[in-house]
Amino acid sequence: MDVRLSLSRRRFFGGVAAAMGVLGLRPSSSLFAQARTAQFTGSEAQYDAYVKLASNENNWGPPESVMKAMNNAWKYANRYGYPDGNIVQVIADHHGVKPENVLLTAGSGEVLQVVGTTYLTDGKMVLGSDPSYGSVYQHATNIKADAIKVPLDKNYRQQIDKMIEATNRHARDIGFVYLCNPNNPTGVIITAKEIKQILDNIPKDMPVLIDEAYHHFVDDPAYGTSMPYVLEGRQVIVARTFSKIAALAAMRLGYAVAPADMIARMRPYSMGSINALVKHGGVASLKDTQGQADIKARVIAIRTKTTRELEAWGYPVIPSQANFFMVSLGERTVQPVIEEFRQKNILVGRPFPPMLNHLRVTVGREEDMDKFLTAFKEIFPKKGGSTIAG
To answer: How far is CA 132 from the centre of its chain?
Structure first.
């Protein structure tokens, strides 16, 4: 069985550190969130001049409805107790659950951390795919836990059969199973059928954390959110964020939806430090369904256009269902390429071991992607016809 224990931590964080050095970034007090919280150390003018395609942000920014709601909430800035838009109830209503099924967090990253702290006790390990969103594994390291990592297959898909086998083989030692859907950094989905397959074939009391940070950008009918499993009372925790489709990355707002007993067990490990402005912005965002639909349509159209042009230039792209994609660089490794793009005022990617010949690129506005494609064609020579990677 091709299962790797605690794979490549040194290589991964070496790559992250190198990337932050090149980009003029410094890490926050911890590397939690897989370097996502790295701070830019230059001037505002320098930062604003960059085309930012490195962190899977929404380059269109919050819609007017969300900005208005947040601005109106400034009147509560001097208060501890204040009307918060009833955000937990609004989230619960949005998903057809009860407030006790919702845990409000500082982005979905805090959900991943809280789940780790809750369930990785007494030597328990997390089981997930590799590569995937690494903050889960890093947090396990921080609390002196460990991980079982199942490599992606040759088509960059998560190997559900092998994950089931590994979970059942090590069931006594596993605290929870982690599924990122769509996966980061590849953008590849786990189908609804595969989610059901893993839930039906592992121990019924095994917690499963399903990270749906990028689910808004999926247009594949084989995909399905895992929220219905919470309604069934399954041991499923679904993580969501307002950082992507809602363009509130810097505001730090996310949440978990899970059975009430699981939420109650996790709640003591949550900071509960969400501010008044972002709570009101989150409520407005959930109500602005047309705005989210517009961003989804733009992302999908620009994602399709950009990846087709890269493939026509001769560079395979992994089929993505997220607001980013990975393009193969052939024989070149990603770190020097990141620097070449930076010299052209474009921020892209970071290393994702072992996929060091792939560059992850955020889908930005049309003008952003035009600049990216121009730079790509200056850096990489045209090759013969290519097919989609995988």
So the answer is: 9
CA separation for the pair 179, 235 (Å, rounded): 13
d(CA 311, CA 118): 44
Q: How far apart are CA 127 and CA 304, in angstroms?
A: 32
Domain-ending residue, one of 261, 289, 317: 289
Alpha carbons 78 and 76: distance in angstroms, whole number: 6
Look at residue 224 and tell me if it is in a domain: yes
Asked if 241 and 212 count as a contact pair (C-beta separation under 8 A), the reply is: no
Residues whose CB is less than 8 angstroms from the CB of residue 18 and which lie 6 or more positions away in sequence, other chains included: 335, 351
Q: Maximum CA pair distance of the chain?
A: 63
**Residue 319 maps to a domain:** yes
Gap between the Cα atoms of 151 and 339, Å rounded: 28
**Looking at the domain assignment, is residue 24 inside a domain?**
yes
pLDDT tens figures, 347-358: 998 999 999 999
CATH number at residue 195: 3.40.640.10
The CA-based dihedral angle spanning residues 87, 89, 94, 98, taken in that order and rounded to the nearest 10 degrees: 140
Cα–Cα distance between 310 and 373 in angstroms, integer? 8
Summarised one tens digit per residue, pLDDT across range 118-154 is: 999 999 999 999 999 988 998 998 888 899 999 999 9
Q: Both 152 and 126 in a single domain?
A: yes
pLDDT tens digits for range 257-296: 999 999 999 999 998 889 999 999 999 999 999 999 999 9
Question: Roughly what angle, to the nearest 10 degrees, separates helices 135-142 and 107-119?
Answer: 40
- Full residue range of the structural domain in which residue 330 is found: 9-63+290-379
Tell me the residue type at 289: T
Query: d(Cα 239, Cα 360) in Å, to the nearest integer?
Result: 22
Rg of the chain taking only CA atoms, in angstroms: 20
Q: How far is CA 382 from CA 83, 95, 330, 373, 375, in A?
A: 57, 47, 12, 12, 13
Cα–Cα–Cα angle for 116, 120, 125, rounded to 5 degrees: 105
Q: Rounded to an integer, what distance in angstroms lies between the CA atom of residue 50 and that of residue 28?
A: 21
Q: How far apart are the first and last CA of the chain?
A: 22
